[in-house]
Amino acid sequence: MWMKTLEEAHEALRTVVRGVPADGWQLPTPCDQWNVTQVLQHAAGDQLGFAAFLTGGPGPTEDPFAPSGELDGKDPREVVEAAIGTAAAAWATVDEDATEVPVPVPPNKMTAALGAGACALDAAVHAWDIAIATGQPSPLTDDLARELRPVAEAIVEPLRAYGAYAPALESENGGEAAELLRYLGRRPR
């Protein structure tokens, strides 16, 4: 089941990156201080980080939490495709019932389902960030949000201390995707 959620989140990220207009890469995003290119770099770096933890292979070449905003001539679609392809291949090697897999988020070991969910949460939420910044439809469906909400509740609180997520916003009962976004400190639009 978790592979389906991860695939859906990866497809969301892939789709919104393909939909960014040529003049959209410098637009501001819901992530304070980051433009679309920086969110892309962060999201790609996080996917590579998950893969590196799982396989012992190389991680991102740039700090995902201090993205430069420069792709040095690389095609953004190729950047995201390489990152999600690497992450998907790494997760495909993990036993679905594994009780302890290494991940780049505290506590750095999780069940396979929770770890893959964390990877999916990252991809899906940053897909939403890019979509909102560039005027695209939200790729975060209520069904995907329903799958990701328990993951968020399991991992986000410790990450708030590092500034990875803003404080949760008050619930407004606006659907599961909107509620997940509020829990992650984002204002649904």
UniProtKB/TrEMBL annotation:
Coiled coil: none annotated. InterPro entries: CHP03086 (IPR017520), DinB/YfiT-like (IPR034660), Maleyloyr_isom (IPR017517), MDMPI_metal-binding (IPR024344). SUPFAM superfamilies: DinB/YfiT-like putative metalloenzymes (SSF109854). Residues 6-131 form the Mycothiol-dependent maleylpyruvate isomerase metal-binding domain. It comes from the Bacteria. This is Uncharacterized protein (TIGR03086 family).
